[in-house]
Amino acid sequence: MPKRVGIEVSLAASEAACAADVDVIAADPVTPQTHIVEHLSELVADGELDAEFMPVESEHSAMSACIGAAAAGARTFTATSAPGLALMHEIVFIAPSLRTPIVMVVANRALSGPISIWNDHSDIMAERDCGWIQTFAENGQEVFDLIIHAFRVAEDPEVLLPVIVNMDGFTLSHVIEPIEMLSASEVSEYLKPYNPQMVLDPREPITMGPVGVPEMYTEARYQAESVLNGSKKVIVKAWKEFAKLYGRSYKPIETYRTEGAEVVLMTMGSVTETAMTAVDRMREKGIEVGLMRFRLWRPFPVQEFRRAVKGIKALAVVDRAISFGAQGGPVCSKVKSALYGAPDQPQVFGFISGLGGRDITVEMFEEIVKKAIRYATKGKGPMYELIGVRER
Amino acid sequence: MAKVDAITGWKDLEIGCAIIEPGSSRRLKTGDWRSQRPVTDRDECIKCGLCWIYCPDIVYSPTRNGYFKWNGDYCKGCGICAHECPKDAITMVMEGE
Amino acid sequence: MIEIRVHGRGGQGAVTSTELMALAAINEGKYAQAFPSFGPERRGAPVMAFVRIADGPIRTREKVYQPDVVVVLDPTILKIVDVTAGLKRNGMVILNTSKDEEEVRKTFGIKAKMALVDATSIAMKQLGRPITNTTMLGALIKASGVIDIKSMETPLKKRFGRIAEKNLNAMREAYEQAQ
């Protein structure tokens, strides 16, 4: 029986990696991911997890070590946050290219400057096009479940791609809440031992990561792109099986009270729960509003998205990052491009909020919905809008 | 039609573009762009092995009698061996046409 | 759902107190959230920590802006922080003070319902140190009734090991004394 315990979400993330019986962890502590790494090093030192813990000197090295470990056939885990992820950037792109199924938790934090340790999505949006599968968790339970799911998908012979599980820094990472923890033996039913398709082994030498000359670079990149797009069916299947075994079901796009909705809020990550409370409150007042959120961010679930917005008149997309100079946020830009050419498109209004640790409150979501309704009635709104910015 | 320079289709690439045949670079004979080649005067050679150590393409290999044999398949004619030879026993000579 | 905000100074255990409370509530089968007001931790600086406890899943991630209960670990905080900010209409302030109610109301102009306990004296007696977080938990549980005081035993023992008993005694004494 899964055990329901009160636990800090960061520790639950470490426990998930432990339940997945990882072989190698290479990580460098960085706020707000620190507790994940601390706890994993404790688990290894206490003999509760039989794994190699590599306390590397930088995230550039962390990801390099992870790639080496995964190439040698090890189940590999790491975690980081904004400045660490940025320092890792170069190597982050190499992992999917080498088809190394690493699982990485990103405790999302704002990129500086000004220096900020607090939560938003600017760190992960800067890695949007890195070729990893990317999912977003809304609460501690999802963090635990998505990590287990991530290993299953990453190591699937049809996929062999690294996976990032996003969890909001502080807003999730430092919160104590009830989580149903699966033990290693419970997880083993879902997650079989990693059976690598290709390993670095001196007895049977191969070359991984050779130069990609112009005569083959395009083909190599297309392989990565085509595998990433094709991974969606494995991702969905793995969620279905997760639901069958453990009773919690996940979908690429989740909807909440969207039936008959005039305006639908779109969110990602932990603000979703606050947005649900806002939707409940507004529904009580007779405002027909619903909520939709991307659980799967890459590969972008375009068909599911187009299906989900059918019949919806307006979308209010809430971004947690600015795409500087692009007049909007990255999620809203993607939403608009995914709708281009689709029949019966909803009107899309972009909002940016919750930057650098500022709360998006229930009231702010209500304000966003009210604005979206007003713009939808008028038939036009601003390109995007920063909610909660003080003018003077 | 656009010119296609590709040497293989994307579906034929190994996973992650790996090269699964060990030592396949041996087949790529890099010696054919040489304009000069080293010739060792064995009367002067003291069998010190510096040519073998310094050669960036490992074209020298030790022989049973202590000298070092040159392999023209991979020698690019850079002249490092001739430069490093302490006895000036190696001379770079022009390749014929 | 009950929302609690704890005021203290860095190092006084405000965050720990909220964590212990949430763990106890979760062990009772309830739902709970405990989290600090995230920031650079500095010993001595005024800090806040939050707890939400409910019978069903808690679906909000904002800070606690309108608490039902405010706990003040350190009486000197009252001079620099408006601890009653956002307090709900029937909300309550639980205060560590050696003063009596009339004096506190006069000095700080608090109109809300109050529960007072001299937690510093209890902590000095039981723990030998003026760290009042576990002591104040006793007063909080007494005044709010949101969880059973017995539920605190497991998380406190796990957290404090061999000094758990002293902390439990401090908590129990405050539970008895709070008014």
Structure description:
The complex is a heterotrimer of chains A (392), B (97) and C (179). With 392 residues, chain A is α/β, with parallel strands linked by helices. Helices cover 40% and strands 19% of the residues of chain A. A seven-stranded mixed beta sheet of chain A has the order 3-2-4-5-7-6-12, sandwiched between helices. A six-stranded mixed beta sheet of chain A has the order 9-11-10-13-14-15, with helices on both faces. In chain A, helix 2 links the parallel strand 2 (24-27) and strand 3. The longest helix of chain A is centred in the middle third of the chain and has 33 residues, at 214-246. The model of chain A has no long low-confidence stretch (mean pLDDT 97). Chain B has helices at 50-54, 80-84; strands spanning 36-40, 60-62, 68-70, 90-94. The longest helix of chain B has 5 residues, at 50-54. Chain C is α/β, with parallel strands linked by helices. Chain C contains six helices and six strands, in the order βαββββαβαααα. Chain C has helices at residues 14-27, 101-108, 119-126, 133-144, 153-160, 164-177, and strands at residues 2-9, 31-36, 46-54, 69-72, 92-96, 113-117. Chain C has a six-stranded mixed beta sheet, with helices on one face. Classes of the chains: A alpha/beta (392), B alpha+beta (97), C alpha/beta (179). Chains in contact: A-B, A-C. The interface between A and C is medium-sized, with 27 and 23 residues.
Largest sheet data of chain C: 6 strands, mixed
DSSP, total strands of chain C: 6
CATH C-level label of the largest domain in chain A: Alpha Beta
The count of β-strands of chain A is 15
- Reported CATH architecture of the largest domain in chain A: 3-Layer(aba) Sandwich
Assembly category: heterotrimer
Q: Taking all residues together, what is the mean pLDDT of chain C? A: 93
Q: How would you name the CATH homologous superfamily of chain C?
A: Pyruvate-ferredoxin oxidoreductase, PFOR, domain III
| Rg over alpha carbons of chain A | 21 Å
Q: SSE order of chain C in H/E notation?
A: EHEEEEHEHHHH
Task: State the end-to-end distance of chain C.
Answer: 23 Å
Task: Count structural domains of chain A.
Answer: 2
In DSSP terms (H or I, runs of 4 or more residues), the helix count of chain C works out at: 6
CATH architecture label name of chain C: 3-Layer(aba) Sandwich
Mass-distribution shape of chain A: globular
Mean pLDDT of chain A: 97
